[in-house]
Amino acid sequence: RVLDDGFDLAHLDLSDRYADNGFDISSESGIPDDDPTYEGGDWHGTETAGVIAATGFNATGVIGVCPECTILPVRLIGGGGPTTLYSSGSAVAAALEWAVDQGADVINNSWGPPDGNALDPDHDMALWPRADGDRPAGVLPQVLADALSYAVTLGRGGKGCVITWSSG
After folding, report:
1. What is the pTM for the complete model shown?
2. What single DSSP character describes residue 69?
3. Which residue, among 36, 10, 40, 31, has the nearest Cα to 21 in the 3D structure?
4. What is the sign of the dihedral through the CA atoms of 11, 9, 156 and 78?
5. How far are the Cα atoms of 4, 28, 160 from residue 32, in angstroms, in the given order?
6. 162-165 and 73-75: which strand pairing?
7. Per 3-state DSSP, what percentage of the chain is helix, strand, and coil (rounded to 5)?
8. Cα 123 to Cα 142: distance, rounded to the nearest angstrom
9. What DSSP letter does each residue of 102-142 carry, written as one string?
């Protein structure tokens, strides 16, 4: 499962890799729908899905690291994402829980919070880094902590989902 921005569902290397359903929670309205298609320049989800699962040996594009995997596209950060993306954590929590409920084995988040306090884009950057060189950890909203716990304990039939995040 890929939580990112938009996806090109007709991409030649990926159209056979996508699950029948998708999820879009990126709108400002906060009302999710089932269309994770990219809009404008938010095509990073397609690139990420290609690295993961692009069909191989078809004389088109590249081959993904898992060319027979199924991608469940979740458009979370398209158009900048919902206004609550970094503040309440509810959008990320909803996306994680939805992916788990759809049978996710691995949840890839090829995005991350802005620099600064992990969940507050308006955080005072003058506090970073601390005198000892470390960066203070942001406090996870409870709804997001609960969603992560749900994924790693109940996903994959109780084995837990593997969750990866962007490193930079």
Report:
1. 0.80
2. P
3. 36
4. positive
5. 14, 10, 25
6. unpaired
7. 25, 10, 60
8. 19
9. TT-SEEEE---PPSSSTT-TT--GGG-S-TTSPPPPPPPPH
C-alpha span between 39 and 110 (Å, rounded): 18
Query: Exposed (0-12), middle (13-18) or buried (19+): which is 137, by Cβ within 10 Å?
Result: exposed
Q: Which amino acid is at 18?
A: Y
Closest of 85, 82, 86, 14 to residue 43, by C-alpha: 14
For 102-155, what is each residue's pLDDT tens digit? 999 999 988 876 555 555 555 555 444 455 555 455 567 889 899 999 999 999
Enter the tokens of residue 108: 């890839």
- d(CA 94, CA 75) in angstroms, rounded, equals 12
CB-based contact 78:89 (threshold 8 Å): no
What does 29-63 look like in DSSP terms, one character per residue? T---BS--B--TT--HHHHHHHHHHPPPSSSSS--
- Give residue for tokens 């069909």: 55
